[in-house]
Design brief:
Two copies of one chain form a homodimer. With 514 residues, chain A is α/β, with parallel strands linked by helices. Chain A folds into three domains: 162 residues, 3-Layer(aba) Sandwich (Rossmann fold), CATH 3.40.50.970; 132 residues, Rossmann fold; 175 residues, Thiamin diphosphate (ThDP)-binding fold, Pyr/PP domains (Rossmann fold). Helix content of chain A is 37%, strand content 18%. The first copy, chain A, has 21 helices and 18 strands. In chain A, the strands form three sheets. In chain A, strands 9-14-13-15-16-18-17 form a seven-stranded mixed sheet, with helices on both faces. The first copy, chain A, has a six-stranded parallel sheet with strand order 2-1-3-4-6-5, sandwiched between helices. In chain A, helix 3 runs parallel beside helix 5 and helix 9 runs parallel beside helix 12. Chain A starts with a helix and ends with a strand. Chains A and B meet through helix 2, helix 4, helix 5, helix 8 and helix 17 of A and helix 2, helix 4, helix 5, helix 8 and helix 17 of B.
């Protein structure tokens, strides 16, 4: 039987290794939906909102190490997914968006759903193409997958007019070669070695390969051998942690604390990241965080094959004696339920090889300290500052890691941007434990309001930074989407609920009133 | 005391008549928030998600007849609001977006939240400007308000770098003149008169002024005098209805039904709209709906001063005898709770001057028939096909119409896109009754899947068009956001809940299991 364009595209995507589709389709995507239905090798996960779809594809890519595809409904559907595409772009997550479009001959008529899809896609995409012909769409799909891989990973957006999908005959296209990661130039390695041997204070700022278990172990040895400091990017997309993985501090979020952390550094060695800048500008404060006069050594860029470079550094500086200190696993917290108590009990109970999706915002400060002494795990973080990434990314991460427990560490304000993710997690029966840090305010904004030098806030301003009146109840919200949950008001009830969730397959939500 | 840029902007907006701000701010907007706090004349309404914010500004504009402003957080915040900006653009709603941006000197550093805000804004905006100077921002704000007014109404997006907001001194700018609506050329009126006198079948397709109470009365008389047909745009932004307002059919959604409705028409007279095209393209079916050979008479464009032109038409064709037929007010429905029963009981109980916000999708077919005999009301409809407009628009419409009851008629699938609006409605204590038509599927897509000629759906495709497994429970969702509600399974319980809600100030949600 001959294929139509949609069928040729779906087969090609799967042949290229893209076998999960996060989807929120509309009429113009019905032939693609039919084609998904015919391809047994493609798993489909429905989201009730496109921000869930794109955030899930991001979380999936970070854990699976390969792209998923999304299916989005024209410009508005893409627009709804834009914030989490922004985060995915900042995480260098590979992703293939398939965005439905009106039939080619229908576009010029300016029907109600018509919009400039390429224009909407461009700011978040590293690759955009409209597939004008059913005979071309399979090759375009293969090119999209290739583009998504990078390196570094990118958002590839393939716009699929409805008649490109429904017309035929069309044939699948072969997978294209994925470029391998560029080697780090010897000169960069030499520069880093010189810095480490200079006798002046060096600091590593790391992301990408540098925050994998292997990277962290290499950098830990290098820094112990040389006295260099090390910081992970404040918004590192993915970081390994737990017993056997050297703990590494993240560069602090607030500019003045970051400046303090880097004070005295003369050589800043960048591994898979770029020179640090403050997240926001503040009146009277510098935006660039590299200490004045310090030399920046760009050892590697994101997407580079940087682990051999780190090995070369270690060879040059020599393996240190001893091993990194290892803290004792925390016990369960008792008493009041504070953000710190949540972190402590989480570390006490965390199962092996858990996946932590961290959008805890101001409530997450105690997590790294406690988690360093918990079983090995991986943590995904908010990269682009577009809140609403956590629950969708937990959905996608859980799809990518069957048999492991995913824990969503979620601020309440941020949770509300993409709360619909709970339904997809429930529908898929995923092993996701969601912990809502419910402080009932945009706490970060109450801090920032003061920090930016705005006047003392009156009641109207505070109302805009406050989530009470009425209080949100996340257990009711979860229940409304078919997910069980409970509210925890003290450490004891939190501990019991967390232990129960970790022991029970499927999803659960704990609203931690902190 | 001298003002900073933010203060000069807020004062200018209020001086220009923009005195409601729907907001979801972030750090880069803190000085604007502080300025809002200092301006007593500006009402601020917090949304927990930007799609709520922009949809509310749309609903507000349609009912208040003037723009609100929004406050959005950089590119991702704007992106989250994009779908409802698309709808607002299609509704020709005036709106001023204030989008925070990094400080001017911070933009080049590519901090995590940096994105191409102008690029994201352009596809939905009729006017975009970055305000680079605190001394310029007030004048830019006045220009944005002017641009928003049109005519026709437009989305004006003012991008506000943080240092433009916090630096000074700055002064408010005077309001700019709002251009008046262009008169309809005599030639267009003559052309329409000729068509009406031709003896050939004429049809009006109307929107804008044509669907106000005055416009509907004029067109009703013209059509009764001439035998012309009349249809409102399928996705008319605003339409008056009820006793004393001539009922008018909307052009059917599905192309084949629209073709049938227009069959035989030789002259298509367009009032504040353009020639009809099908919402989507379908294989083997024409996209343009004007009957072959029919002449299109563009009486007026949206934004024109079109009521005098309709008066001239009526003068020319002569006032008909008699009055329009008026149906009897429906009684309460009994028995099973069907979409038709919901419409019937709604019409039976509707209070005077209610505002109906209609995103009922496939469940709304019976509404126009029953509502024609209910008390006078106004109805807002989904214009751009980007679902998730209903609950936010109900929020905004209710803010614009204190003392009146707003009724959100809401499909379940669409409701989930912007469900966060319930919290803002609850927080503001607005008189909004939300009726969820819970059929637990994307019913329109199940129809469209068949209509586009896709293969018989398998279970995987059906799963993507289905909202069950698990069932959503909107009463729990409402409760989680501080809004009371109940589930209705038969007409009797629905009637009781609806009557109770209409008699009780404040919001209420009824999940109608239809």
């Amino acid at each position: 039987m001959s294929m139509n364009g949609a069928q040729s595209l779906v087969t090609t995507l799967v042949d290229c290794g893209v076998d999960v589709c996060f989807t929120n389709p509309g009429t113009s995507e019905m032939h693609f939906v039919a084609a998904l239905d015919m391809e047994d090798r493609m798993r489909c996960v429905l989201g009730l909102f496109e921000g869930v779809v794109t955030g899930a594809a991001d979380g999936y890519a970070r854990m699976a190490g390969k792209p998923a595809c999304t299916l989005l409904h024209l410009g508005p559907g893409l627009g709804n997914g834009l914030a989490n595409l922004h985060n995915a772009r900042r995480a260098f997550s590979p992703m293939v968006n398939v965005v439905g479009e009106h039939a080619t001959y229908h576009r010029a008529l300016d029907a109600p759903l018509t919009s400039d899809i390429e224009g909407i896609a461009a700011p978040v995409s590293g690759w955009v193409k409209v597939s004008e012909q059913p005979q071309q769409v399979a090759a375009d799909g293969a090119a999209a997958v290739q583009a998504a891989w990078g390196p570094p990973g990118r958002i590839a957006t393939l716009i699929l007019p409805a008649d490109t999908a429904w017309e035929g005959p069309a044939e699948p296209a072969p997978a294209l070669a994925i470029p391998s990661a560029p080697a780090v130039p010897d000169a960069s390695v030499e520069q880093a070695i010189s810095a480490l041997r200079s006798g002046e204070l060096c600091a590593f700022l790391i992301s990408g390969n540098g925050t994998t278990q292997r990277g962290l172990n290499l950098i830990d040895q290098i820094t112990r051998a040389t006295g260099a400091r090390v910081f992970a990017d404040t918004f590192v997309p993915h970081i390994a942690g737990g017993v056997g993985v050297p703990a590494v501090a993240r560069l602090p979020y607030f500019a003045e604390q970051a400046e303090e952390a880097l004070a005295g550094v003369r050589h800043l060695i960048l591994v898979d990241t770029k020179a640090p800048v403050s997240f926001f500008a503040y009146p009277g404060r510098a935006s660039e965080l590299t200490p004045e006069g310090a030399k920046v050594v760009q050892l590697s860029h994101i997407g580079d094959d940087s682990l051999p470079a780190l090995e070369a550094l270690l060879d040059a500086v020599g393996t240190p004696e001893g091993t990194a200190l290892q803290a004792e696993r925390p016990r369960l917290a008792t008493g009041d339920l504070t953000p710190g108590a949540v972190a402590q009990s989480l570390a006490a109970l965390l199962p092996e090889q858990a996946v932590l999706v961290n959008e805890s915002a101001t409530s997450g400060g105690a997590l790294p300290g406690f988690l360093a002494a918990s079983p090995q795990h991986e943590m995904l973080n908010l990269t682009g500052g577009a809140i609403g990434m956590g629950l969708p990314a937990a959905l996608g991460a859980a799809v990518a890691t069957p048999g492991r427990r995913t824990v969503a560490l979620q601020a309440d304000g941020s949770a509300m941007y993409t709360i619909q993710a709970l339904w997809s997690i429930a529908r898929e029966g995923l092993d996701v434990t969601t912990i809502i840090f419910a402080n009932r305010k945009y706490a970060i904004l109450q801090m920032e309001f003061m920090r930016v030098g705005a006047q003392n806030p009156g009641p109207k301003a505070m109302d805009m930074l406050d989530l009470s009146r009425p209080d949100l109840n996340f257990v009711d919200l979860a229940k409304g989407m078919g997910m069980p949950g409970m509210q925890a008001r003290d450490a004891a009830s939190f501990n019991a609920a967390l232990a129960e969730s970790f022991a029970t397959p499927g999803p659960y939500l704990i609203e931690a009133l902190v």
